[in-house]
Amino acid sequence: MRRWAFFTLIAFLLLTAAAAIALGGEPPQPVLAKNGPGLVATFVRLISTSDKPVRAVSFDVQSATLAVTGVDGRVRILAVPGGQPVREFVHPGGATALDRSPDGRQVATVGYDGMLRRWNLANGSARAVRISAQPLWAIRFSPDGKLLAVAGEDMLIHLLTIDGVPVRTLAGHRRNVWDLAFSPDGRTLASGSFDHALKIWDVASGRLIRTEDGHNEAIVAVDSRRGDGLVATGGDDATLRFWRSTGAPVRTLAAGQFVDALAFSADGRWLASGGRESHGIHALIKQLLGRHIFDGSNPTARLWRVDDGALVAVLNRQPEDVVAIGFSPDGNWLATGSDDGTVALWRLTPAAR
To answer: What are the tens digits of pLDDT across the range 143-161?
Structure first.
């Protein structure tokens, strides 16, 4: 009986490997830049926040604390760089996304329960508003702190006052909306969806300005750069794409992974991305055989030079998928949140090559 089970397992592994070869291995891996400005990320510490996946990280405006939340629903405010707990709130049922107000005084989350929750960090007061009967995946404060944009499984983008009063609803995506980003002036909003589309919206009127279908798979992560509003997107086609604030395409990069999270640095010179190396049949193989297969690589987060799209650093302290990522406003820190419930803190130092 044991021999039969052993040979059955071997046959299964061989068939799985053959299927993986037929379907192709991991995405093509970008090469580290050897010349030009760089950014060195020095690992400082790994903070274990939960046994459940992290879903969002966000620094405060002074870069003194880091807000972390995830599937367990606990919203933790941690000191930087020590990681000591400062405050804690709870989003019942689990949180999927988090954002801080521009003045740093409030933190807001959305979750699997379709609720928006907002906390005043000074006194701990909370406000909860039901937005949808379905899970919500994205939340962003507008740059002036007067609006919140929320989106998710219902395919709609909900614009609300910070007190949760509906302002308008933006409809146009054909699948769930994964991420959002306001332009620096707050006049437009970029959205990325499972329908592969990037959409640019006029916030004041709700008018759809432009739709771009450059991605071949779902867009999972979106961010907008301060200053010129350059938009970055990443997703399940293992590419990073840059777009002008109007939605016009600029550049496409081979990301080397399926992108689950991305963020511009405050000065706009760098882009951080995080994600997973495989999905589908490859994810199954990873569970059975480990990460290093078919020339796969270990890094789960990467740093890119925005000007020319060069890869300047790879980060590999977390073996599981990096699904949340964020720069500190002062440019000295990067946080990466993982499916394994950890947050890695990295010290950033400019370097010339």
So the answer is: 999 999 999 999 999 999 9
CA 282 to chain centre: 21
Closest among 298, 235, 260 to 70, alpha carbons compared: 260
Question: Tokens 């600029």 label which residue?
Answer: 250
Q: How many CB atoms lie within 10 A of CB 303?
A: 24
Run of H or E including 19 = helix 2-23
Q: Which residues contact residue 165 at a Cβ distance below 8 angstroms, ignoring those fewer than 6 apart? A: none
| Beta carbons within 8 Å of 17's beta carbon, 6+ residues apart | 285
- Find the distance separating the first CA and the last CA of the chain, reported in whole Å: 60
What is residue 329's predicted lDDT score, i.e. its pLDDT? 97
Residues paired with residue 89 on neighbouring β-strands, in sequence order: 75
Angle at 260 (CA atoms; ends 274, 255), nearest 5 degrees: 60
Task: Look at the pTM and tell me if it is higher than 0.85.
Answer: yes
Which of the four pLDDT bands, split at 50, 70 and 90, describes residue 135? very high
Beta bridge partners of 304: 271, 311
**Cβ 327 vs Cβ 333: under 8 Å:** yes
Length in residues, the chain: 353
DSSP assignment of 38-61 equals EEEEEEEEEEE--SS-EEEEEE-T
CA distance 8 to 243: 50
CA dist 175 and 136 (Å) reads: 13
